[in-house]
Amino acid sequence: MDLKNWIRDIPDYPQPGVLFRDLTPLWKAPEAFSYAVNSLVDKYRDAPIDAVAGIESRGFMFGVPIALGLGLPFVPLRKENKLPPEVVGVDFELEYGAGHMEIRTDALKQGDSVLVVDDLLATGGTAAAAALLIERLGAQVLAMAFVVELAALNGRAVLKDHEVHSLVTY
User: Fold this and answer.
1) Which listed residue (8, 31, 58, 136) is catalytic?
2) Which side of the chain, N or C, has fewer Cβ within a 10 Å radius?
3) Where are the domains of the chain?
4) Distance of alpha carbon 117 from alpha carbon 141, whole angstroms
5) Annotated catalytic residue: which of 56, 78, 80, 95?
6) Is 58 a residue of the active site?
7) Cβ contacts of residue 71 below 8 Å, gap of 6+?
8) 141 pairs with which residues across the strands?
9) What kind of architecture, by CATH, is found in domain 49-169?
10) Over the stretch 143-153, which tens digit does the pLDDT of each residue have?
């Protein structure tokens, strides 16, 4: 299945010069959404993973069903002040701004192996921040999975210490 058929391009959003890859048509098409989720579940079914971590907010859309499909816990990586204490956080740079991400201190335990999931890999800053949070808890990132990768933004190079898998590359 060619998932690009369910990904819409929106020029100059959220600011001039940005070509936004909109996945809402994919979520609206159960066969395409199911295909994307099941492709990632199949990829990691036999991997030694203890938890799936999803990056807020679109990473939740894929991370939760992937965690369920793998029979694993889901760990949310959230924006500032969205999780109850105790949390650890990290500031990071985005393609067009800055962000702050947090994880609960009891979300993972020392030595856990984690699959990080998000909808899109662009510059890699958000995913690198997710890895840093996971590692601060003493866990390790086994792999990072994305539905879409924007290869021209070279996010894979930022994540060079991690296995990176994407379903669609632009």
Assistant:
1) 58
2) N
3) 49-169
4) 11
5) 95
6) yes
7) none
8) 114
9) 3-Layer(aba) Sandwich (3.40)
10) 999 999 999 99
